[in-house]
Amino acid sequence: LICFAVVLNIASVSSLHAAEISLNDALQEAESYSPKLKSASLQTKAAEQNERDARAGYLPTVDLAFIGSDGSPGSFAFLGVDNNISAADRIGEGGAATVRQTIWDFGRTSNAINSATAERDFQNVSASLSLSEVDLQVLNVYLTCSFLKSAISDAAFTANQAKLIAAETSNYVRSGQRSVIEKFLVDAQAKEAETLGAELTARIDNVEQRLGMLIGRPNGEKVSCPNLSKPEAEIQKLEKSTRRSPILDVFLASSKVAKFRLEQAKSEENPMLFALATGGYFHDIQMKDGWNYSAGVALTFPLFDGFHRDARIEFQKAESESRDALIDYSKQIV
Questions:
Q1: 2-17 and 180-214 are packed helices; what angle lies between their axes, rounded to 10 degrees?
Q2: Residue 180, exposed/middle/buried by CB under 10 A (0-12, 13-18, 19+)?
Q3: 14, 91, 204, 241: least CB-packed within 10 angstroms?
Q4: C-alpha of 258 from chain center
């Protein structure tokens, strides 16, 4: 019994060395430190830039190219410059600027923007889910810590009572009013309380270290919590971590992304109307020096690309149906 009292005293001293933190502070520190939330934030930023990239489809593209050649005239169209600078009948040095503006792409750009916007919304909802997961993880460890502290206090009380009963039982045994068997039973109860106290002490040590790791404390620093039996206002603020789970919102946003990507894939089969204007100067030793320009409007029709578009459409159809099925699944688990 004396040994058990010493064990409980060591446990209480160990808890004093670990800084005690409130639930609200633990949640705030965990949210600031969490690598998972940092990753979710960066994923959101990436989705925002992807949306910006999609919106750039409405803007013109401007290119500037220079070329110098010698020998026999030859074609330089592989440079991708839409100007006489890449014609087959020229040689020498020159430069050209090209401006290309899409006039109407029959939904390609708008579908790409819708898809990117849905992806951004999906990342925002996913970040909310990650926040809930981090908060619930901290809450679980925090309440486990508080429960163990309460259990250790209860074990200490039980040990003190067992000590008093054991002393009285010994007196009764010596006076012949109780049997030795009763003394053995009391000693067994005291030993059981001692074993329970040692087990709880070891568990709370690990839990406090786990709590410190979740909130970002360095080098395995332990963080303690208040006794659950204490009337603490922070325990009443659990609404922050027990709010409605955003899992369903995540699946709904994911399904929306898949539907817009399907429309984006379908729009690749549509024609494209665009305007092209180029202007430049080249020194041609075969002909003459001169400025040149050209402008026009073109309408292109995609005919056959080896079934790439068809495969992408079927893939997005399957993705969309799969994510719709996940919505039904999420309703079962939320």
A1: 10
A2: exposed
A3: 14
A4: 19
Query: Phi and psi dihedrals of 280, rounded to 5?
Result: -170, -175
Write the CB contacts of 33 (distance below 8 Å, at least 6 apart in sequence): 214, 215, 216
Tracing tokens 């803007």 back to the chain, one arrives at 59
273: which 2 tokens? 């109307």
Residue 295 exposure: Cα atoms within 13 Å on the Cβ side = 4
Which phi and psi (to 5°) does residue 270 adopt? -85, 155
- d(Cα 120, Cα 110) in Å, to the nearest integer? 15
Lookup result for tokens 């001692």:
194
Residue-level pLDDT, tens digit, the chain, 334 residues: 434 344 444 344 444 456 788 888 999 999 999 999 999 999 999 999 999 999 999 999 998 877 776 655 554 554 555 555 555 556 667 777 888 899 999 999 999 999 999 999 999 999 999 998 999 899 899 989 988 888 888 888 877 777 777 777 777 767 777 676 776 777 777 777 778 878 888 889 899 999 999 999 988 889 988 876 554 555 555 554 455 567 888 889 999 999 999 999 999 999 999 898 877 777 765 555 567 777 889 899 999 888 999 999 999 999 999 999 988 888 777 6
pTM for this one?
0.73
The whole-angstrom separation of Cα 68 and Cα 79 is: 12
Listing DSSP states for 288-307 in one string gives: -EEEEEEEEEEEE----STT
Q: Is residue 205 within a helix (H) or strand (E), and if so which, with residue range?
A: helix 180-214
Provide φ and ψ at 15, rounded to 5°: -65, -30
